[in-house]
Amino acid sequence: MDRFEKGLEILKKLNDENSQELMENLKDIAPDLGRYVVEFPYGDIYARPGLDLKSREIATVAALTAMGNAQPQLKSHINGALNAGCSRGEVVEVIIQMAVYAGFPAAINGINAAKEVFRRIDGKIP
Amino acid sequence: MDRFEKGLEILKKLNDENSQELMENLKDIAPDLGRYVVEFPYGDIYARPGLDLKSREIATVAALTAMGNAQPQLKSHINGALNAGCSRGEVVEVIIQMAVYAGFPAAINGINAAKEVFRRIDGKIP
Amino acid sequence: MDRFEKGLEILKKLNDENSQELMENLKDIAPDLGRYVVEFPYGDIYARPGLDLKSREIATVAALTAMGNAQPQLKSHINGALNAGCSRGEVVEVIIQMAVYAGFPAAINGINAAKEVFRRIDGKIP
Amino acid sequence: MDRFEKGLEILKKLNDENSQELMENLKDIAPDLGRYVVEFPYGDIYARPGLDLKSREIATVAALTAMGNAQPQLKSHINGALNAGCSRGEVVEVIIQMAVYAGFPAAINGINAAKEVFRRIDGKIP
Amino acid sequence: MDRFEKGLEILKKLNDENSQELMENLKDIAPDLGRYVVEFPYGDIYARPGLDLKSREIATVAALTAMGNAQPQLKSHINGALNAGCSRGEVVEVIIQMAVYAGFPAAINGINAAKEVFRRIDGKIP
Amino acid sequence: MDRFEKGLEILKKLNDENSQELMENLKDIAPDLGRYVVEFPYGDIYARPGLDLKSREIATVAALTAMGNAQPQLKSHINGALNAGCSRGEVVEVIIQMAVYAGFPAAINGINAAKEVFRRIDGKIP
């Protein structure tokens, strides 16, 4: 199994719908970037054996909340965290904790992202 | 047990030496900031039951690596992550993963921080 | 008066409407974060005697404009700055000044936030 | 020719429509900021002889993509890069490259900005 | 009095020693950048009548503490804030407050910068 | 020629000495990160045909100056920019321009990085 196949397998598990949208969105302007997303983050990094997927998604949700400039990707990884075995409560804890390291606005905006993801899963928003 | 006592207990467990240095350092210029560090991050947040300390330190190491502008605190939390039960390998995985979300320079500078912490623990640097 | 009560008093003075929305918004997903917002930023920090509220809001508007990744909170604090005694002109000066430290895009986006806040106060947008 | 006139000449060449909107937008709240935008970035910096306009726009698109908190200005400069002689493919390459230095989310959000600019030029969005 | 002269006058008042070092440092590699520093931030912005110098320095100390990636300039402006009429206590308050908006590491690193500036003024470090 | 070989060829051309140090530095703690640096940034991205190496280094110097939290990598790429055909004057122009998008402190700190690189090349510092 090559890097792309390995990556796609993990990506499907974590974020099937979002990743198909991403590929679709990139295909006419930067299809190679879509391929790199599968190959490097997922095929190379998430596929590494030294850390479980749940911890990897905790790390990613923390980083994207703290950086505060990548809301679409944060939502995608909140979803991924749930698919990797985090409870909603654990995702919320990670985000609240970022108030300490990146300030309250980052944490509040992260919670709003989580709220939207949870509501979409619950069918309350389309 | 009040917020300060609860926080101090957790802080001692995660980062005893670093936190004493921090308090010492702040005491003549902003002692209240030293107290807040114990009360809010540790007494309020890390003390919350919904996420284990190991996952909390993974989140913090991820965020500080990604932000890339707080090397002293990153080193402190790499140490804290080890005290919370992360293996060195797991810490390294979290940091490498940040190449995906914050770029290779952030990951490389994070690895250099980890290297320094590991070497200090091993007695190779004072 | 405890930290929460002290914080709420200040928050009501600076940002009554926004803060009620914030609490309402957080209450079903992360109510503790809503409580922390009252207790730590307002009950602990803004309540401190060493700096007047007007100067505190100038500092906050400056920081949020410079960081550029927290527009809802920037708008809230532009409003808070006016309630703390800043004139519109002073708020605009703080934001323009950020062109020097965080670049012109940060300043322009900050001015757009101020424009929206001013227009809402003037009843030109709902 | 003074700084303002020199700046306006370059700005018209790079971003005529966007810059008129910007001036219009700033005129009732911070007209001096509009004047500074013409004078300092364009009249002082872009007017300097040591680097061609195409390279200047490559630098700006790279920086704004990497910073990730100034989407309106990024779109403006993607347009400016095309007017300075970059092909669409070159703009896309600059943005993809930012995955290395600022992470994949920054690159993906940059590509989405480019897609919107290209579609507007092609008359597919108004 | 032209922009350069006006800027130099303000800069001398706020940061005489630091600004001479800066000019000296830039003169053989980018002397125009040294000139722009005098002309735009000081000659254009700090010279504006709508906000007093003390409030301007509060805004700048806040922003540089929050951004956390410009320690030399933060130290310079802590010094400038004192020269503009801030007490040491007020500078410390501004920096502590940044824990709320940019996280505790930013505030702690800002306090360390202030400590160094205060000790230099007191002749405790050269 | 595989990704690693292709990447190493480009990396040697741009930054031979720095990249050997980097690999050496990573080899006992995160050797795979060293391999990824060769494979993804250089083997995948810089190897792409759509943008010349000189423009790629201009983009990277711009981004790292603007981000302001990766001084070692900025110095490395200032060196790379020279090896890719930029004159010293062009590198200085790119960095000065960042004052517009990321503020004067970022530009000044970038110029200091360039000064150090130029002096090292000239044999004035070891």
Beta fraction of chain A:
under 5%
Q: What name is given to the CATH topology of the largest domain in chain A?
A: AhpD-like
Second-tier CATH architecture of the largest domain in chain A? Up-down Bundle
The span between the termini of chain A is: 36 Å
- Look at the helices and sheets of chain A and give the structural class: mainly alpha
Report on the architecture of this protein:
By secondary structure, chain A is mostly helical. The first copy, chain A, has 2 domains: 1-50, AhpD-like (Up-down Bundle), CATH 1.20.1290; 52-126, AhpD-like. Chain A has helices at residues 3-26, 31-46, 53-67, 71-83, 88-102, 104-121. The model of chain A has no long low-confidence stretch (mean pLDDT 96). Chains A and B meet through helix 2, helix 3 and helix 5 of A and helix 2, helix 3 and helix 5 of B.
Per-chain topology:
6 copies of one chain form a homohexamer.
Chain A: H1 3-26, H2 31-46, H3 53-67, H4 71-83, H5 88-102, H6 104-121
